[in-house]
Amino acid sequence: MAGVNNMLETVREDDFVEYFLFPAIEARNETEEETLLSSILDKANKIVKKYADDYLWHKDEFRLSPRTSIHNKLSHIDGVKENLPPHLYGVSHYGDNIEDEWFIVYILQQLTKEINGLIARVHDADGEFILIEAADALPRWASPETCENRVFICDANIHLVAPDSVDEEDYAISVKEAVSQVREKPTETVASIEVQNAIKDKLSGYPEKAKENVHRATIYVPVAIAAILKHKPTLIAFAVQAFCNRDPIDTKACRAMKYFPPENRVLTSVTFTKCMYAMLMHSNYMPDRRTGWNLPPPHSPSFKAHLLGVKVACGFEILATQAKPSADIETDRGWHSYLKSLTDKGYFKGLLEHSIEHNNLLNKAKEYYVDHRDSMHYSPVVGQEILQLTKTLDYSVDELKRQEQNLPKDDDDAWLNITPEELDKMLQEKYGQKTMLSVNNNSDAAEFTERVTNFLNHVSGMEGVEFPDEDPTPVRPPRRKNKTKVSFSQDTKPEPTPVNNKVNFDPNSFACAVQNILNFVIPEDDSWNLESDSDMSEYEEDNYVKDESYQEVKNKMQQYMEEMDKELAATTIGDSFVKKNGDSFDDVENFTPVDINVNALKNILESYRSQLGEAGPSSNMLGPMGVHLEPRNSGGNAN
């Protein structure tokens, strides 16, 4: 039953980031722990307010709560219960805006820097996600499995608690033990300067960067919504989420507009995050004119303000409609979201619906939800707050009308559009190779083919290609079993490891086969020789081999090859290949060997020209190898 309680407590959407702050305190009892934690919490909240007071959170804000050492909390990532040291705890959902997650990392850095002795740990559904940015600089023992519970922030620096030996079969370490090592051996656990710089680059620009991530726009909304947003601007985030995630029931509410009718509207200026603004702009919706919405023509300068206002108003209407009486759980939208998450996480263990065991688990989940709904992410408390504001908020319609004349200018939303060239540049800066080989007509063909050959011949494993300038034999500890983790690369998703049906795969034979295909190499044995019967020797007793049809097919194939040779001999296709200068075969009259290197380079360049600057086989193949094709300055084609 303990496992059931743990799942009820920890089930959440996958867009969460969980964080812990461990202070250096010693207390004789729980009461003293609570007093010390409350004092540190007050300091932490002042620091958070300094950096995040004006920050517009996409979903959940950064929030800390004290936990004494008697709290046995289940770790959401590894499923291991542990009695943690006294700490401050928080969990936030960041939705579609990944910037919130990294801003939380920045706040944790500042907290550990300004509060002496504070050590932070942060992770999300993918595990120790901050190491993704420093994947190229990690020590060779580090992998998603071995780094679990070993990544911390202390004095604004990243700390990695290394395992005692690379020969260990199990790299599990308790959070309590890891925190002790960071506190007792700060110089030994601090990560390399390369790792520190990678994280600093990711967080560079904060907190000023947060101001660059907002967009101000004018919207035309019902007066009640304008007054609510003046009173509490952060509610815009919930309205955008509600509108963009609407379902048919929500759409029905938008046609009624019971709480925010469109009869009396005003212009008001609202601050969105860029993510919210983009979501709203790209969410297609045309209101029903019978509701009372009267939009100007699409080419009108005021059309965007009107349409944005409709979408925001619908978002507030959905939130108000979802605010249900607390006793009516079956019509509570939050309950159904919570129940769906429980089901997706395997809470019901595949039990038959309406069975006794299933009903017992369902009733237990209902009891837990009713007791904790006000503190849960699925709570309709936002809608209830909006309804309360419509009844108690004092505002003047005339004053809102007068403020229409002095609204700030809208921010330019040209950032919504990006050209293919800008996208290519961004991708190159983010994922491109640091060293590139530029290719044009004057390039050394031998150097080009050598680069391609080295790439094909280099070692690769199941975790990806090892480029020629990397260490081909990294020391990695054995992987722990029964774990599904994301790799420390930015485009990798967790995949389940099959338990049975093992596939026997010889990477050396596979690489050799691919290389032979690319080089047009015929195997040295006589298995492909039509004149040889050695490949069929073991099948001499087979009735099919003795059948005349086999010999007939064999003769037809030989005849086909001879006819093809005659056809090619009558063409000039051989003249299309570049020959080697000064090389010839004395024993073969009028024969000059083909220059393989030059022809390979020539064909690649011709393929690139046919792409006309777009993506194609040549650029897609050579890009990961670090080979860059130079376009002609005047015409956009390759030289």
UniProtKB/TrEMBL annotation:
<dbReference type="GO" id="GO:0005634">
    <property type="term" value="C:nucleus"/>
</dbReference>
<protein>
    <submittedName>
        <fullName>Uncharacterized protein</fullName>
    </submittedName>
</protein>
<dbReference type="InterPro" id="IPR010770">
    <property type="entry name" value="Ecd"/>
</dbReference>
<dbReference type="Pfam" id="PF07093">
    <property type="entry name" value="SGT1"/>
</dbReference>
<feature type="region of interest" description="Disordered">
    <location>
        <begin position="463"/>
        <end position="501"/>
    </location>
</feature>
<feature type="region of interest" description="Disordered">
    <location>
        <begin position="615"/>
        <end position="639"/>
    </location>
</feature>
